[in-house]
Each structure stands twice: as structure tokens, then as C-alpha cells.
Amino acid sequence: MSPSNRTRRLAQGLVCGLLLGLGAAAQAQQAVSLDALLEQVKKGRVEDRKAAQAREAEFSRDKSRQAELLKQAQAEQAAEEKRSKALEQEFEANEVKVVELQAQLRERLGSLKELFGVLQQVAGDARGQFESSLTQVQFPERTAFLRELGEKMGQTSKLASLDDIERLWFELQREMTESGKVARFPLTVVGANGDEAERQVTRVGVFNLVADGRYLNYTPETGRVAELPRQPAARYLETVPRLEQATSGLAPFALDPSRGQILSLLVQAPSLEERIEQGGVVGYVILGLGALALLIALERLLVLNVVNLRVRAQMRHPDQPGKNPLGRVLKVFHDNPRADVESLELKLGEAILKELPRLNRSLTFMKIIAVVAPLLGLLGTVTGMIITFQAITLFGTGDPKLMAGGISQALVTTVLGLCVAIPTVLLHTVASSPARRLSQILEEQAAGLVARQAERQHDGDPAPAVAPA
User: Which residue(s) pair with 201 in the sheet?
Assistant: First the structure.
């Protein structure tokens, strides 16, 4: 390649690089010839040189300023190091002084140190006891005092004052005094539906809280008083209004001396309806059969007593047969005055046999219920045990609550079966006694009629015999 071509190529490369560096401004002013382009390049080099010189001058000024700043920083460092040594010496001296003062404090406290330790312990124990006591709802401000007293006693630089000691004694004495009082005061109570309302609350010592005839529950963790969603039995609730209405003297009240534990157990105990529900379908079937047996027994007792009254009235008027079992038997005798003894005896026996089904109607069904009820209870027991073993198979024996449903069904159905069977047997006995008594009366009267007919025929009397009374 010739030197002219090399020079031309070098110039072209330089031009291309300058064009790329100029950007949009250079593109806007495109040169129309190489001479104009060369002139633009010269101007750009001059401007770049001026900018570089300005930056170099600025760097020189910054260098001198940095040196000054470095000297200032070194001087400050030396001063701070000197100050640090002085503070260290002062700190060591203060430590020695603190140790001496603490020793003097321990020496001067003497036996008071044990007193303050006991005081701190009593304040902590009292705070824990007060927060769980029912009197806390009436005097909530005392826990803040006990908290501050405990924090103060925990610091060696602060000691309890005489007022603090007297206040602690006062709070302890007030707790003992209020534990034996029945107090009434307004308080915000959470109802069973979740609504908050201010009620007149009656506090019975440290044992129970009641309001509007219902028992309340105090939660120490939240400090809130709420109505028990489920109340104890009616015999306990009947005593609450009497206490709330009393102004002096003695009033009966169902007190929980365990401070809520017995009450919580009574609340958790299932009611009669819930126990019946635990028996399931089998339990309802047993109860249905028991109700049916009771209705049958009542119907039989009513009917048989009416029949018994009519039969006894008929016995006083044997010559006038009425619409009753004995009257129908007497009518057979009056309709066959010339019949021989054997025929009359058969006809009377037939009449009695017709009356027996009416007297013993539905009594057999009661006997069946008395037998079936325990069997249904046994069926419920087996079903409940199957459910229990299935729960054991699936979940193991870790949680007894998973097995409680099956065991409850097993036991409840057995109890229901026995509770139905035993009264049904007694009712069957009571209901069948009038029927047997009426049957005996009919047989006695029939036997008397046959005997009278035999005597008449033996004496040759053609007149009809009079029925026996």
C-alpha cells in the first residue's frame, strides 16, 4: 500500500471516530467538503484541550484542600484520643467509687435488705393473687401499684417508701375483708350474644359473680366479665334472684367454694335432652315404644275401671242385663231358661270367651314392648361399641374425646332400654290386674248360674231361675 493511500485511510478513520463522538449535533451540521470537516475537527480538539486543562486545575485545587482536611482530621483524632484516655481514667475512678458506695449501702441497710426482699416477694405474690381474684373487677387500680412497687424494689438504687409499705398492707387487708362481703357495683358485662352492657353485678366474696339472675365468669387473662353461655340447673339459678333482691340478713345462694371449678363442671354436664340425643336413632325408637306403652296402660286403666264400675252395678241388678260383660253373660242365661246344665255351661263359657279379648286388649303388646326395649338397648350398645372401635382404629387411643361419642351411645341406649322396660312391666301388671279381676267375676257368676240351673232342674221347678247377686 502506498503512503498516500495509507494517509487517506488514516484520515478517513479519524473522521469516522470524530463523527461518532460528535453525536447528533455533528450530524445536524454535515460538512459539504473535506476542508470544512477538517476545520470542525480542529475546533473540537481545541475545546477538548481546554476542558482537560480545566479539569487538571480543579484536581490540583482539590488535592491541596484534601491535604488541609487530612491535617484537621489528624488533629481531631489526637484530641479525641486524649479525651478518651481522660474518660477511661474517670470511668475507672467511678467504678471504684461505685463499689465503695455499694458496700456502704449494704452495710447501712443491714437487716433492712432482707425486709425489702420479703417486701418485693410479697408484692409479686399479691399481684398474682389479685389478678386472678374476683375482687379485681371492683378494684382494678391496685395491680398497677403492685407492678410499680415490684419494679422499684428490683432496682438497687431505689427503696420502698413508708407510704408504699402502708399501701401494700392496706391492699392485703382489703382483699381479706372483701373476701367475706357481698358487694354490688356497676360493671360492663359481655352478654351471651356477645353484646357489652353495663349491669348491676353482685359479688359474693371471692367465689361467684351474678347479674340479672345469671352466673358470670371472670377471665383473668383479658380482665373481662362475661355471662356464662350455659347456666347450671334451675335449682341453682332459683337462688340468684333471692340474693340480688336481699338487702340484709341471710339469703339462700348456691355458692361455689372452689371459685368456679365446680360451676364449670356443672355447666359442662349434659342435660337430659342432650343425653337422649346421644342415644341416636335407637334411643328415639326406645322412647317411642315407652310412650306407646304408657298410652296403652292409661287407656286400659281408664277403660277397665269404667267396665268394673258397670259390672259392680250389674251385680246389684242381676235381673236386668245391661251393656257390660256381666250383663251380656246374664243375657245368655235369660235367653236359655230351659237349657240343660251342660248346654248352659257351654253357652256361658262361650260368652265369657267372647268378653276376655275385650278385657285383655293391647296388654300383650305391652308385654312385647317390655321385652323388646332391653333388646333395642343392647342393639344401641353394640352399635356404639362398633363406632368406638372404629375411632380407635383410625385415631388410636391418644384422645379419649374421639371415643366418647360411641361410648355415650352405648351406655345411653342401654339405660333407655332399661328405663322403658322396667316401668312397662310394672304398668302391664297394674293394667292387667283389673282385667283378671273382671274375668274372675264373670267366671264366678257363670258358675253360680250353672249351679242355680242344676238345682232348679233337680227340684223340677219349671220357672226360670233368678240370677245370683
Answer: 185
What integer pLDDT is reported at residue 156 of this predicted model?
Answer: 55
pLDDT tens column, 343-375: 877 887 888 888 788 888 888 898 999 999 999
Whether the CB-CB separation of 142 and 130 falls below 8 Å is answered with: yes
CA distance 246 to 235: 18
Give ∠ CA 442-447-448 in degrees, rounded to 5: 100
d(CA 151, CA 143): 12
Distance CA(65)–CA(69), nearest Å, equals: 6
CA-wise closest residue to 413 among 283, 289, 273: 283
Domain residue spans in the chain? Answer: 110-178, 180-267, 280-459
Q: Give the whole-angstrom CA distance, residue 463 versus residue 469.
A: 18
φ, ψ at 282 (rounded to 5°): -60, -40
Q: Which whole-number Å values give the CA distances from 162 to 110, 122, 166, 167, 338, in the listed order?
A: 18, 15, 6, 9, 123
The per-residue pLDDT for 296 is 92
**Residue type at 373?**
A
Least confident of 30-44, 120-134, 257-271: 30-44
User: What Å distances lie between residue 386 and 281, 375, 382, CA to CA?
Assistant: 15, 17, 6
Predicted structure pTM score? 0.51
